[in-house]
Design goal:
2 copies of one chain form a homodimer. Helix content of chain A is 45%, strand content 15%. Chain A is α/β, with parallel strands linked by helices and 439 residues long. In chain A, the strands form 4 sheets. In chain A, strands 1-4-5-13 form a 4-stranded mixed β-sheet, sandwiched between helices. Chain A has a 4-stranded antiparallel β-sheet with strand order 6-9-11-7, with helices on both faces. The first copy, chain A, has a 3-stranded antiparallel β-sheet with strand order 10-8-12. The longest helix of chain A is centred in the middle third of the chain and has 17 residues. Chains A and B meet through α1 and α3 of A and α1 and α3 of B.
Chain lengths: 439, 439
């Protein structure tokens, strides 16, 4: 395919709602990658794409061009099926921490390249770094070795994977072009497909604590993700899951690791376990390791209940330089905050809602998250829920505990007091978080 | 009005089709002017405005903010009504050269700040510079003196007038956001209103040789111009005029000056004279110098036929450093090309069409125009039509003459040969170029 240079004609065509052909899209992404297209033209194109969209044909090529803008990992020497999961981000979303080792224990390889938290949603890398010594900056050779020997490794984005996405994302962030389905989908998929995986499960969160507030938007993103997966010849499933209340009980970093270890012990909150089992079952299914969804679920449940997943986690922590004693004595190894603030019920009633967005912002205000990419994370602080939606509460009962270092406490406490809706009438405990699965 | 700083919220609002309030628009234009908003955000906003538009309320504020981004001339010491004309640009459009002196001879002041040519349409300043010694870079004091004493002065854009437009225009040019009605209208009006005028006539060209190809677009631009004029409390008329065939006989620089002097002698091509008289009559009308359009037309006709306009032109040339002998001996004073190429009819028939765009590009190829803003103009070269639409031609008859210096001749000649449509059936000579007048 001969590569035409980028020209204003391409920008004009998208501006007018036209269909960009393959050479035009590749010329744009090549110019984004090598820097030959200046920021002001890239941002004009981003706004045009935001407002005009990309049709399915354009979307597949766009994501493929982004994916090929850098290195694509060659995991050919790993015999097992290679499968990953990506979440669009939630509050208390520690699923990767228990899911990846549990699924690896079921015989597939999980080469997981993950992100950091920003705003109200935490990042898997930040949570892992709560474990003393844990390194997420392994080079590609060590990453592949680790996936090959243990079945799983969790590292951060390298400079060589999908560099076009890094430039596009930085510009989207400052030009009000973040919330675009094709741009989000191609950003996610370019990074994930560069991992050299065979199959992917996307956890597309919807609700007050998620990036997508409306089910329609989540479905549109799911569809765009599948269009890209299909164009790339990869099996991709999307689970749309509820993100109105925080996931599990812990929101922070060290406390989320603790909860993930509980799940790996066959315990932990029901919803954290449900997400782990369902997403894990789906991963085994799309990877072709099982023939039915039910079989996949049963395999992951067994990995949790037998401790097989926990053993993989122990080896993973050790391989990535972390203190593996965290598996047996998490409270003793993980950092602890010097003080705890309690949020108590002012009246009797039933917990009707817990606002995940408010909880996320509260944890972030304490130092568990970042407002800017260069903020430092405090791994010890956060929020531990003491009640769930549907629970009965009496006056003075503890609703949540907040390990803190005084910083940001006033604002966080105010947010947390307002995060709980207590009703007079009984409230049904929510059922499954899984809204629908698109295969 | 307190000025909020520019924020992504403003960009997001326009992106989503919202109405920007006055403070938001002023914050954006202020940030464009002082450079605090980076190029990539300005260009994202330009694309959002391109695709979402500006409603009438936004448009008036946007143009006003641009106008006030720099100096606004104070012509208070000039007692006469101050009125200007602006053309959206055509091929062979030398109207300002004969119009401005003729209208000034009728007792109004014409403080005309003009532009240079780019692409296929020439610029008034380039044409004036064909007169040896003519200076278009007078400072503001001398400009006002000249308007005060002679009634007219023609200079180039200064760095102090509407600086926001300069930055926006430069970015529009490289981000495919030129062809936007609100952006065009606010660009024109911010510069014109900064002249300190009381009233304005816009010559909005439509046709193959014009920027606007469709009457609907011309009407939309006319309407936007009037919205801005109304918001600024200025009387603004718009004439929509035909730009399918070149205006008059000359397309170039020196040859256009020659044609303008012919018109100022009461002669010249009928269409060049018609545009001068009709636009001039309208200028006198919107300036309040006459009470009817017919009276305005009669006054301008008299200024041409009596030589009064020519005398103003003579004084203007002298005041701006040019060789005033050009008035009496244009052919002797204006630069001449060393060679002339003739385009001849290959068959007998009737001239059905002359493609203004092709003629404009041909003249530009010879050196009469520029492709890039730093190209040098050759004032002596160009195209002189020898026939008009409706004329009968016989085989071998000269259709056009092209004074040239060999540069670009082959391409220009090929364009010119294809520019004429010769039909077997008689063709009616076109009537008025005035399509409609919006007041």
């Amino acid at each position: 395919m001969s590569l035409a240079p980028f020209s204003l004609e391409i920008l004009r065509k998208k501006r007018d709602g036209g269909h960009l052909d393959e050479a035009e899209i590749r010329a744009f992404i090549a110019g984004v990658t090598d820097g030959s297209i200046p920021d002001y033209q890239v941002s004009a194109m981003l706004m045009a794409v935001f407002l005009r969209g990309l049709d399915p044909g354009e979307l597949g090529v766009w994501a493929d061009a982004m994916l090929r803008s850098g290195e694509v990992l060659d995991l050919g020497r790993i015999a097992r099926p290679k499968v990953d999961k990506h979440s669009t981000g939630g509050v208390g979303d520690k699923i990767s921490l228990c899911l990846a080792p549990a699924v690896a224990a079921c015989g597939v390889a999980v080469p997981m390249i993950s992100g950091r938290g920003l705003g109200h949603s935490g990042g898997t890398l930040d949570k892992l770094e709560a474990i003393p010594g844990f390194r997420v900056d392994l080079d590609v050779e060590r990453f592949i070795d680790c996936v090959d020997s243990i079945g799983v490794c969790l590292i951060g984005q390298t400079a060589h994977l999908a560099p076009a996405d890094r430039r596009l994302y930085a510009l989207r962030d400052v030009t009000a072009t973040v919330e675009s389905i094709p741009l989000i989908a191609s950003s996610i998929m370019s990074k994930k497909l560069a991992e050299g995986i065979d199959a992917l499960v996307l956890d597309c969160k919807v609700g007050t604590g998620a990036f997508m507030k409306r089910l329609d938007d989540a479905r549109a993103l799911a569809q765009a993700i599948q269009v890209i997966g299909q164009a790339a010849g990869k099996r991709v499933s999307v689970m749309i899951t509820d993100m109105d209340a925080p996931i599990g009980m812990a929101v922070g970093n060290a406390n989320e690791v603790l909860e993930a270890i509980e799940v790996l012990r066959g315990r932990g909150p029901a919803d954290t376990r449900e997400l782990t089992v369902r997403l894990g079952g789906e991963m085994l299914h799309v990877a072709g390791a099982v023939s039915t969804e039910a079989e996949g679920i049963a395999r992951v449940e067994h990995a949790l209940d037998s401790g097989a997943g926990l053993e993989v986690f122990r080896r993973l922590v050790a391989a990535q330089g972390g203190d593996a004693r965290v598996v047996d004595d998490p409270a003793g190894i993980l950092p602890q905050a010097p003080a705890t603030h309690e949020i108590r019920a002012e009246r009797a009633g039933y917990v009707a809602a817990i606002d995940a967005l408010a909880v996320g912002i509260a944890a972030s205000a304490l130092g568990a998250g970042r407002q800017r990419t260069d903020d430092q994370i405090d791994h010890a602080v956060g929020v531990d829920m003491a009640v769930r939606v549907g629970d009965t509460v009496s006056p003075g009962q503890v609703l949540a505990r907040m390990p803190h270092r005084h910083r940001g406490l006033e604002r966080a406490a105010a947010l947390m007091r307002a995060a709980f809706t207590i009703d007079d009438k009984p409230v049904r405990a929510p059922g499954s978080r899984i809204i629908e699965v698109l295969r």
